[in-house]
Amino acid sequence: MKFKYQARTKTGELQVGYIESPDKPNALQTLANHQLYVLSMEAVLQKKSNLFAFFNRVKLKDLMVFTRQLATLIESELPLGRSMKIMHEQTKSPALKEAVFQVFQDIESGLALSQALERQNSIFSDFYINMIRSAEVTGGLEHALTFLASYLEKEVQWKSKIINAMMYPMILVVLFFIVAGIMVVVVFPKIQPLFEESGAELPLVSKIVFGAGEFVQTKWWLVLFILFIIWYILYDYFKSPEGRQVGGQILLKLPIFGPMYQKMYIARFAQSFSILLQGGIPVAQAIEISGDTILNFVYRTLFKQMSQGVKEGEQFSQLLLRYPQYFDPMVGQMTAIGETTGRMDDMMVKIADFYEREVNTVVGTLSELLQPILLVVMGVFVGLLFASILLPIFNLAQSFAL
């Protein structure tokens, strides 16, 4: 078995690590033989399945509420350990509650908050951890937590606005497919023999729809199997580095959504980058950390390359201007002004404010843009669906008239 332990050496230094042993007593004895005083030890559980992890994940809103409440407790000058204990008692999310308890134990064992959070990096991002680490150096932990809470709150608001804007169109799409499926699989096969007995030639659209309905009705298991195979192949591909790169490119090229996400990525980066600079993080490191807050693989790759470029002596503004398809020229120009004046953090705040307003405007009009487009597309499909049954009826009526 594998155990994770915390121990102190003879000189009082804290040591954290893993040890393989048949059982816990043997592991304790082995560490004691190495002159280590064990503070805590726990068995390392097997890695959870992706499906279980998905349902047990920490929601962004839960993390935002936790951060806001913790900031309030710290501002009230409660000791950090006591604050974490209170947060463990108040937290409702099972996964976050367990993580907070582990953080509380680590703090009680002598670890700094950033070190304790780093051990829970599946929940707390690198950006979150580095913000806390810089605040511990400058002594402004409550300010860092307040900023993180506001940052997460904006993320929640953007996500909620996008979901709300997409809700009505998605309901229409789902209802259309349900109705179309019932007609193709249940209704059309019952009236198809009437047209076949009449001997009238079916239009091409009717042949396609009737054939699809008959195939789904008799080979539904094959349809489900094919859909599963397609889903698995696409899921596996888009999990790979190449697939994530392609997926990121596709998202950025989508009409309406592409420009919106581009502005959102720039706003998110500029906001986090400015705070890290204010916390004394070096520019190259701040670029890489802020880039990791962006989910799009294309932008994350670009920021890693830029971080390396800055380490090699290049100016950040020139690197931004090198990719006009991903960054508006204004971003590079304002960054250049910040580099010249030595106030890059202020420039990044202005960039973040500008693009936040742009994103809010786009998100606010998203549903207004999508609904007419969706209605036109659905109208075409509905027209084809009813044409497949009305055209044979019209042809049949004409044959009887003759």
UniProtKB/TrEMBL annotation:
Keywords: Cell inner membrane, Cell membrane, Membrane, Transmembrane, Transmembrane helix. Residues 66-189, 269-392 form the Type II secretion system protein GspF domain. GO terms for cellular component: plasma membrane. The chain crosses the membrane at residues 167-188, 220-238, 373-394. The keyword Transcription regulation does not apply. It is found in: Cell inner membrane. It is a multi-pass membrane protein. Gene3D superfamilies: Type II secretion system (T2SS), domain F. PANTHER family: GENERAL SECRETION PATHWAY PROTEIN (PTHR30012), TYPE II SECRETION SYSTEM PROTEIN F-RELATED (PTHR30012:SF0). Belongs to the GSP F family. This is Type II secretion system protein GspF domain-containing protein.
